[in-house]
């Protein structure tokens, strides 16, 4: 899944698509939880290890794998935000 859209703007369906693309082996565990808890992109960016455990990802190795992916999403989101700020500064 490309990141042409801000992660914080993702719908539940786009979160499901990202999880399917990145972690297909965890999709069975996460699919129902994402829908049940209506996890949007904004909520996805805030997930921590204890949230993953509550969502059914109990193995620490699996949690770490997903947390690394979430960290990359957060970094990408921050870069996009900084780019927007810089483009606003230069347009003044």
From TrEMBL:
Domain SAM residues, every copy: 10-76
PANTHER family for the chain: PROTEIN AVEUGLE (PTHR20843:SF0), STERILE ALPHA MOTIF DOMAIN CONTAINING PROTEIN 10 (PTHR20843)
Pfam families: SAM_2
One GO cellular component, as annotated: cytoplasmic side of plasma membrane
Coiled coil regions, renumbered to chain: none
InterPro entries in UniProt: SAM, SAM/pointed_sf, SAM_domain-containing_protein
Any Gene Ontology biological process: cell surface receptor protein tyrosine kinase signaling pathway
Organism the protein comes from: Perca flavescens
Protein name: SAM domain-containing protein
TM annotation in the entry: none
